[in-house]
Amino acid sequence: MKGAVRTTTDPTLRTSYETCVRDYEGAIKAIEEAQGSVTSKAYQLASQGAAKAFVSISVCEAQFEGRDDVPVYVTKLNLFFKRFCNIDRVFSDVLTSFMNLSPA
Fold first, then answer.
1. Which PANTHER family does the UniProt entry name for this protein (predicted)?
2. What angle (nearest 5°) sits at the alpha carbon of residue 4, between those of residues 20 and 21?
3. Side-chain half-sphere exposure of 3, counting CA atoms within 13 A
4. How far is CA 32 from CA 35, 43, 51, 83, 92, in A?
5. pLDDT value for 99
């Protein structure tokens, strides 16, 4: 996406790309923090980190809504990242559930 910022000639599209670069940086930071939470067995925090990353990518995705000139790779990248966040969240939620089970 950083390359698209440099190469596009459309100022509106450039602004959208710049916003997405910031959103992706925030999402990656949230995923890295979530990974740290998993290491610490703080699975609820990991789930929240994945959700935060998902929201960041959704904000990026919204920048392109209704536009016909968005490269296919941008749409696929957003979809891939959102799926990744969902998988992280599901695993974190499952681990949280297991941690909350009390012995019978």
1. PECTINESTERASE INHIBITOR-LIKE (PTHR36710), PLANT INVERTASE_PECTIN METHYLESTERASE INHIBITOR SUPERFAMILY PROTEIN (PTHR36710:SF4)
2. 20
3. 3
4. 5, 13, 13, 16, 14
5. 79
Please give the Cα distance from 26 to 72 (Å, whole number): 22
Under DSSP, is residue 87 helix (H, G, I), strand (E, B) or coil? Answer: helix
CB 14 within 8 A of CB 8: yes
Half-sphere exposure of 49 (CA within 13 A, CB side): 19
CA 48 to chain centre: 12
Output the pLDDT for position 27: 94
Tokens standing for residue 94: 């499952």
pLDDT in tens, 31-90: 999 999 988 889 899 999 999 999 999 999 999 999 998 989 999 999 999 998 999 889
| 39: three-class secondary structure by DSSP | helix
Question: What global pTM score does this model have?
Answer: 0.84
Q: Give domain limits for the chain.
A: 2-96
Task: Answer whether 23's CB lies under 8 Å from 60's CB.
Answer: yes
Q: Domain 2-96 class?
A: mainly alpha
